Amino acid sequence: MINIGFFIVLGLLGGGIGYLLRIPMGTILGAMLAVGTGRVMGWITMEPSEVVTFLVQLALGIMIGLSFYQLNKGQLKRAGKGLLFIIIAVVFMTCSVAFMVYFFTGLDKAIAILSSAPGGMVEMATMAEALNLEAPGVIFLHFIRLLLVMLVFPYIISWGVKKWGRKG
User: Fold this and answer.
1) 3 state SS of 10
2) Is the pTM higher than 0.85?
3) Is the same domain home to 86 and 124?
């Protein structure tokens, strides 16, 4: 029980610091880094569980659902075309990045593909376990990628909006 309490306090502390520092995605990054540091240092011995994963995904789904609004047919058509382009681009980019990771690092091809594929860390770790791959390595690569995306993309998006404006 003390471990759970410390886990929550550490997550709240890290998330609060990230929020106060006003860094992009600071709440998530702060909590993730604080709890991750606690795990690495041996202060937290908790393991991810299906129940916690389910509750977090449920909360995230609820929050995303609250942001939905009614779309008209024109918006749905544009979204459909965009979705088709995104699917093709994601498959192409995942394969390209996986090949480069494999070529330059010598990692197993399957680990390179799984580490390069979009998706949540929990889902990728579950898939890695099911495929008898190195789940901790896949999680680490996903974590680094997530960290970079959350730190860099807000600035890229802000720059793009300033340069080209918003469409839609």
Assistant:
1) helix
2) no
3) yes
Tens of pLDDT, residues 22-79: 876 778 778 888 988 998 888 888 877 778 778 877 887 888 788 777 767 777 777 8
Contact present, 11 and 35 (Cβ < 8 Å): yes
Task: Return the SS3 of 166.
Answer: coil
33 and 104 together in one domain: no
**Is 61 among the domain residues?**
no
Query: Which tens digits make up the pLDDT trace of 98-156?
Result: 999 999 998 889 999 988 888 777 678 778 888 888 888 887 888 788 778 878 888 88
Residue range(s) defining the domain that contains residue 15: 1-47
Q: Residue 50 phi/psi, 5° resolution?
A: -65, -35
- Looking at the chain, the number of H-run helices and the number of E-run strands are 7, 0
User: Are residue 35 and residue 97 in the same domain, yes or no?
Assistant: no
Task: Please work out, in degrees rounded to the nearest 5, the angle formed at the alpha carbon of residue 96 by the alpha carbons of 108 and 98.
Answer: 20
3 assigned to some structural domain? yes
Report the number of distinct structural domains present in the chain. Answer: 2
Neighbouring CB atoms inside 10 A of 26's CB total 19
